[in-house]
């Protein structure tokens, strides 16, 4: 029945028995016979034949939609099985959000390479949009990223953690008795972004429209440069509360931050494509979730 399902999907997608037969490397009469046998086994009509054309019945549409899901699952199963059998040939490409800074990702990497030393683990980093593009274009297998867009059914969206955002700021930039600040009250200080200049426009839209930042922006190339700006009381950074260890407490402090009186929250996920759900992708995602 599995082979017949593949023939049926080819017929539906091409809309033509001849083209479907050519794609499947069998004759038109053979593919017609296979579809008739499939209908007999199911006891339902999948295709209503109308001379040389046809329409797909409601039952046929249901079988087509869920049949495609089954094909994907079988393909993924084959891939996972091959990866387990031949780990020396496996490559896993993962990307992480460069400004998050959590040790959980590093611990997941360390545990993975310890348990699977034969897998070639390649690590990339970038902004949200850069990681999204790498994942979309099949240049990485999994991305550890924040959530800035609606979750897509094209991806596995494994939620890892929800955290508050905090402000990293110079020790004397604000009065010492302040331990919480409204984001609008920082408009006279620069919001520091550790990104490539080419990513400025996209990041600024997110910070303005989602996080409520009213400040001018300053783009720097490294975390050290950012801390220089903070230490001189010229700016601040909005970061996850999980990122506290990334800042030198001798020159900066962390304050709770609110937008219209409410904490600014952010979700972080492991994302990977539905059709790329291999054994090592799922294993790494599991380790990452465990460390969070």
UniProtKB/TrEMBL annotation:
Keyword Transcription regulation listed: yes
Matching CDD domains: PBP2_LTTR_substrate
InterPro entries xrefs: LysR_HTH_N, LysR_subst-bd, WH-like_DNA-bd_sf, WH_DNA-bd_sf
Similarity comment text for this entry: Belongs to the LysR transcriptional regulatory family.
A GO cellular component annotation in the UniProt record: protein-DNA complex
Taxonomy, superkingdom: Bacteria
The species this protein was found in: Weissella confusa
PANTHER family reported for this sequence: HTH-TYPE TRANSCRIPTIONAL REGULATOR CYNR, TRANSCRIPTIONAL DUAL REGULATOR HCAR-RELATED
UniProtKB keywords: DNA-binding, Transcription, Transcription regulation
Statement: the UniProt record of this protein carries the keyword Transferase: no
Record domain HTH lysR-type: where: 1-57
Protein name as it appears in the record: LysR family transcriptional regulator
GO molecular function annotation: DNA binding; DNA-binding transcription factor activity
Pfam families to which the protein is assigned, alphabetical: HTH_1, LysR_substrate
